[in-house]
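INFO worker-7 received task bundle
INFO bundle size: 2
INFO processing item 0
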Amino acid sequence: MPVTEAEEFFGAGEARTPAAHAILGRLTDVGLGYLSLGQPLTTLSGGERQRLKLATHMAANGGVYVLDEPTTGLHLADVEQLLGLLDRLVDSGKSVIVIEHHQAVMAHADWIIDLGPGAGHDGGRIVFEGIPADLAAARSTLTGEHLAAYVGT
């Protein structure tokens, strides 16, 4: 049974189980509603496993979330859903740190720290720090150039 169907099933009627409904709701919130109950972890992508972990921690009282490439394997519609979830976490007083290359996530961020100037041994220095609009306008880094092309500046 898919998570979205199970969420409905455990949300009302004779099968109503508030604890199960809450857990399944968190899985839907992180964009995993298409997974099947009992699906082996070995069949999940890295991004799916990361979002599963996020769903389990959303019930805790933690104040800081660190996500590494959470959009991996996501359809653009799912990226929008993830951005909405991250907004809700921030609005509830949580701090969210995302390591990401997806331009939609970068454009949506409150603050960007761009490391570079290249990858691997050619990187590791802060080459920009500020809001996404300033990074796109400056085009002073490779990330800034890609972000500017994405936002159309």
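INFO item 0 finished
INFO processing item 1
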Amino acid sequence: MTLANSSSEQFITVHNASIYVKTWTPQNVLDSVPIILLHDSLGCTEMWRDFPALLAEKTGRVVSSYDRWGFGKSSERNGLPSVQFISEEGETHLPAILNSLGINKFFLFGHSVGGAMAVVTAGVLKDRCLGIITESAQAFVEDRTREGISKAQIDFADVTMFSRLKKYHGEKTQWVLDAWIKVWLSSEFSQWSLRSDLPKVHCPVMAIHGDSDEYGSVKFPEMISSLAAGHTEMQIIPSCGHVPHREKPEVILNLCARFYVS
């Protein structure tokens, strides 16, 4: 796909933190309601690579991504997130960011924990959120999730792996890893679930999941699609792991076009 869109960057202040936001505008904007991207536990805007630009062109919608507090180009954060960090993002931080950007109606696309945050946000801002796609989203704490994180903890002890992540998070890299590993593997977080959040979601939901996702089974999208109150559909991507938009980009872009354009 030829990319003819433009992009812009800005920093906004939310709850005394500087939050980095990047926006892609397609050459032909077909609808004024934007798509907001929510990154994963180790992610940031830059780690979406070319997906936001491709998504903007494919859907004809403006696409925006932000770095959560403590990640990427946003302000550093002292202390680990609480075990309520998913609810806090969906109930407090993202609504404040949307208000600061002057965004009323919106769609969401959340990858991994970003998908869980999208669910919470959709339930809180039910009159403003027009639809969400969850991609590889966790819906509760599964043994496979904890096993995958434990393996990653060993992998990131390697200097090369750590350096790759540091390219995106700089001096915040160790905090980013601790915020993921220590919180998710804590006993206090073991009972976390989206079970009480999903019935509050009345907008359309598409739950995308790779059949070989190393961080969670298809029980996650099954829970999302069965408990959300609005129209839902589940898309299981064959021969695909935890990052479908990178592993199967055309498949994901086509699903997005059908969901966000129709």
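INFO item 1 finished
INFO post-check item 1: The chain has a mean pLDDT of 97.
INFO post-check item 1: The first helix runs from residue 51 to 59.
INFO worker-7 idle
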